[in-house]
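Task 17 of the worksheet. Students: predict the tertiary structure of the chain below and write it out as structure tokens. Keep your answer in the requested format; marks are given for formatting as well as content.
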Amino acid sequence: MFFPPWCIGCGREGEYLCDACRRQLPFISPPICSICGRPLTVDNTCPGCIGPQAKIDGIRAPFLFGGVIRQAVHELKYRNLKAIASLLAGFLYDYLIENPLQGDVVVPVPIHKKRYRERGYNQSSLIARELSSMSGLSLVEGCLIRKTNTPPQVRTNSAAERWQNIADAFTCVDGRLAGKHILLIDDVSTSGATLNACASTLKDAGAASVWGLTIALEI
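Model answer:
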């Protein structure tokens, strides 16, 4: 009653995303790259694919990283609006209904313990928990961990730097994910380097498949 939700797009009171702003969401439309999920160009080429050497089975997202979706992710990630995680997870759930991916467990991309202490939460974990509740898929946390505190990917200048930045940053501490088909959850995929590094670690630990699922893809 004292703190009603407000639309992050236009400020209208009532919900975090009003109907008018929902109609302006930057949906990704096919055709898309089978690996990184980005929209293909007019000549059916991918403008920034992580390549056939990728360890991840594929990356998918319902939106491009822009407009109201960018605002929503920033509200969750940098402004402590944790209540919006349910809205974002709902977008992922709706996407999975229309575009099923092989998965029997949900795993969030982890953040380093130092960054967790600074922020107080992992935004990808909040989204993954909500998605697990909506979909009935099991949530597995604490198996995949981030062992090195690398600089944020948005601060690197090129895809090559992002791949170097994230190399060997993750490890699996137990065998809970061996043989599992994993949906790997993150907020945004920029180059795909983080998701691919996680997938490499998970497959080395015995995962059967790893699909990345994010709210948005940055072009």
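Marker's comment: Strands lie at 58-60, 63-64, 105-108, 138-139, 144-146, 170-172, 181-189, 209-217. Helices lie at 19-22, 67-78, 85-98, 113-119, 123-135, 159-166, 193-204.
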